[in-house]
Amino acid sequence: MTQRTTQRMARPARARAARRAAPLLVAGGVYGLAWAAGLRGFMAQLAGSGSEIHWYGTFVQILLPGVITGVLLGWAEHIRRTGGRRGWRWLAAAPLAFPVAVFVSPDVMSAVLSGQPLLSGGIGGGAIAIPLFGMAGGHALSGRGPLWSRIVLGLFALASFPAWAFASAAFGPGFALDTPRGAWLAVLFYSFMATLELACTIPHRPAEPRRRLSPGAGRGEPQATARQPGPSPVASRTHQGAQRPARRRLRPARPAGIWPASAW
Maximum CA pair distance of the chain? Predict the structure, then answer.
């Protein structure tokens, strides 16, 4: 079999894999976009009248990383459903698209080149903290890995909830938890964090067994599911032996004139 023939036979399999992955990638991108848009609305509430919408700051630094994170987590779910791949657990770092988008922006780069520290003035602080909280919570909620690491990362992820309760009043008296607006913003922040942590469990979850496809898969014939355990060879032979009809035992022909009839 030549290399060209092998590549030609592999093309339909790749096309089928792409068609199966497409719905999860699209769904992940839409979910990530909705999450990032909601986070931008949360930030606008905190900034108040000073909030401004910019093409780069809003669409490139917030919405685009949300889409990328959602697509990567959707790809992780596809890999998980198809038996896993080598190194696919690294997709748990998908939320790091947010700090990358912030740190490569022209404003941050110019500030760093002018001698300003990277995290001074709050530059990139939230873009680092929120993804780290989500990744830590995803590992803790997945139930995989050493128990001590899940406990440590779980406590780290839970720290974001009381931290916001204490820090919310720093934005003004109207953001305190004992006010309707402050309570609503707290619920909004907590729901965002819980959603991100649940989504980050996907790359940590166990992979499903890889399915075996029938030879006619992709030509309108049904695909075979995962191989089911069948009866053992010993049980099969025993069952066949039970259904086999009993053989009739034949007597040898009686020699004439040698033994009397009573001997038979």
Answer: 127
Are 139 and 89 spatial neighbours (Cβ–Cβ below 8 Å)? no
Amino acid letter, 12: P
CB atoms within 10 A of CB 237: 11
Which H, E and C letters describe 100-139, residue by residue?
Answer: HHHHCCHHHHHHHHCCCCCCHHHCCHHHHHHHHHHHHHHH
3-state secondary structure of 217: strand
Q: In this predicted model, what pLDDT tens digit does every residue of 32-85 receive, in sequence order?
A: 999 999 999 998 888 887 788 889 889 999 999 999 999 999 999 999 999 998
Domain boundaries, the chain: 9-203
Contact 46, 167 (CB under 8 A): no
d(CA 203, CA 200): 7
